[in-house]
Design goal:
The chain is α/β, with parallel strands linked by helices. The chain has one domain: Rossmann fold, CATH 3.40.50.1820. 34% of the residues lie in helices and 17% in strands. The chain has an 8-stranded mixed beta sheet with strand order 1-2-4-3-5-6-7-8, with helices on both faces. Helix 2 packs across helix 3 and helix 4 packs antiparallel against helix 6. It is globular.
C-alpha cells in the first residue's frame, strides 16, 4: 500500500503476533511530530481513533484492533495486559518505528498504555492517560453505568446507545452520533476476553517507577471512571500533571475535543527527553 495517502485515510494492514492476527492502522502525519501509539477503549474498533488522527495532523497515529474487535479475528486463548503491550511493540517494529513514541490510552486502553510504558520504558517519550484508572484497585463508577458497560449491546444497537448515552458516559446524547457512526460491533468472544484481560490487574505497584512525563485527562462527570481515579494516578506518577475537563463525561475526548485539544497538543509539543523525530517511511505489513 502506498504511503502517499492523505492523513485522514489510514493505511490498513494486518500484523501477526504469535498465532493471533491483528488489524492495524497508521494515519500518516505531514510534519515532524513524534508518532503517537494509541490504545482504544473496550470493544472499540480502530476507526474510533479517526478524530484523534485528524486533530494531530503533524504526527503519525498508530493503533490496532484487539482480538475479536473490529477487523481482528477472534482470540484463540485468553490474554493479559503484558500481551497487549507485546503486540503493540511488535506492530511498531513491523511498521519501522524504532525510536521512542508518545503513548496515549483511553479508558481500558489507559491501562494498556500504562502497561506498555512500564514494560518498554525506553520506547516511550511521553504518556497521556484519558478517562482511566490504575486497574482493579480503582474507585468504582456508578452501578447503572457499569452494568450497561458489561453488555456489548451499546456497540450493536444505535438506538440503545442514544437512549443510554448519558447514563453510560455522563456526556450529552448529541455525542452519540459521532461515536456510533464509526463503531463496528465486537464479537461476543472478543468483548468478553477483553473485559477479562484486566481482571485482577493493577498498575499501582509500578506507577512510582515510571520516569515519563505524563498528562492525565479526566472528566468531572465521568460515571464509569470517577475523577478520584485520576487523582490517584496523579499522586502515584511522579512526573505527572492532571487536567480536569469541566462537564466532561467518559467520552470527553469526543464531546469536549475543542477544549482538550490545545492541552494535548501543548503537552506533546513540549521539549522532552529527546528532540522529536520525523515520521519515517516504513514497510506496510501484508494484509
Amino acid at each position: 500500500m502506498s504511503n502517499d495517502l492523505p492523513h485522514h485515510l489510514p493505511e490498513l494492514g494486518f500484523v501477526t503476533v504469535g498465532a493471533q492476527k491483528l488489524r492495524t492502522a497508521v494515519w500518516r502525519g505531514d510534519g515532524g511530530g513524534r508518532p503517537v501509539l494509541f490504545f482504544n477503549g473496550i470493544g472499540a474498533n480502530l476507526e474510533i481513533a479517526q478524530p484523534l488522527a485528524e486533530a494531530l495532523p503533524d504526527r503519525d497515529v498508530i493503533t490496532f484492533d484487539l482480538p475479536g474487535i473490529g477487523g481482528s479475528p477472534d482470540p484463540f486463548i485468553p490474554y493479559r495486559p503484558w500481551w497487549v503491550a507485546k503486540a503493540a511493540k511488535t506492530i511498531l517494529l513491523e511498521y519501522g518505528y524504532d525510536e521512542p513514541v508518545d503513548v496515549m490510552g483511553v479508558s481500558w486502553g489507559g491501562g494498556a498504555a500504562q502497561q506498555f510504558t512500564f514494560q518498554y520504558q525506553n520506547r516511550v517519550n511521553r504518556l497521556v492517560l484519558c478517562a482511566t484508572s490504575p486497574g482493579a484497585l480503582m474507585v468504582p463508577g456508578k452501578i447503572d453505568a457499569l452494568s450497561k458497560m458489561a453488555d456489548p449491546k451499546r456497540y450493536m444497537d444505535g438506538e440503545f446507545l442514544k437512549q443510554n448515552f448519558k447514563t453510560l458516559y455522563g456526556d450529552e446524547p448529541h455525542g452519540a452520533a459521532a461515536f456510533s457512526e464509526r463503531m463496528t460491533p465486537p464479537s461476543a468472544a472478543g468483548y468478553f476476553y477483553q473485559l477479562m484481560a484486566m481482571m485482577g490487574w493493577s498498575s499501582l505497584p509500578f506507577l512510582p517507577l515510571l520516569p515519563h512525563e505524563t498528562l492525565i485527562l479526566a472528566g468531572d462527570r465521568d460515571r464509569i471512571v470517577p475523577l478520584a481515579n485520576a487523582k490517584i494516578l496523579k499522586f502515584m506518577i511522579r512526573r505527572s500533571e492532571l487536567h480536569i475537563v469541566e462537564d466532561g463525561g467518559h467520552l470527553f475526548i469526543l464531546s469536549k475535543a475543542q477544549d482538550i485539544l490545545p492541552v494535548l497538543q501543548s503537552f506533546l509539543d513540549r521539549p522532552g527527553m529527546s528532540e522529536p523525530v520525523a515520521s519515517q517511511p516504513a514497510p506496510t505489513p501484508a494484509a
